[in-house]
Amino acid sequence: MGRLDGKVAIIFGASPNMGGTIAHWLAKEGAKIAACDLDPKVAQQTADFLNGRGYETIALSGDASEQDQVVRMVKDTVDHFGFVDTMVNLAGRQLRWPVTDINIHDWNLQIKTFLTAGMLTTKHVAKAMIEKDKKGCLIHILSSAAHYGEPGNSGYSASKAGLNYFSKAAAMDLAHLGIRVNCITPYAMEHNIWRFGVGAPFRTRYSTNMQDFLESIPMGRFPRASDIGNAAVFLADDASDYITGADIPVDGGTRAKYPGWQPGKFTNIDVKDYYEQNVATAFGEPVEKTV
Ligand SMILES: NC(=O)c1ccc[n+]([C@@H]2O[C@H](COP(=O)([O-])OP(=O)(O)OC[C@H]3O[C@@H](n4cnc5c(N)ncnc54)[C@H](O)[C@@H]3O)[C@@H](O)[C@H]2O)c1
Question: Is the CB of 284 under 6 A from ligand 1?
Answer without folding.
Answer: no
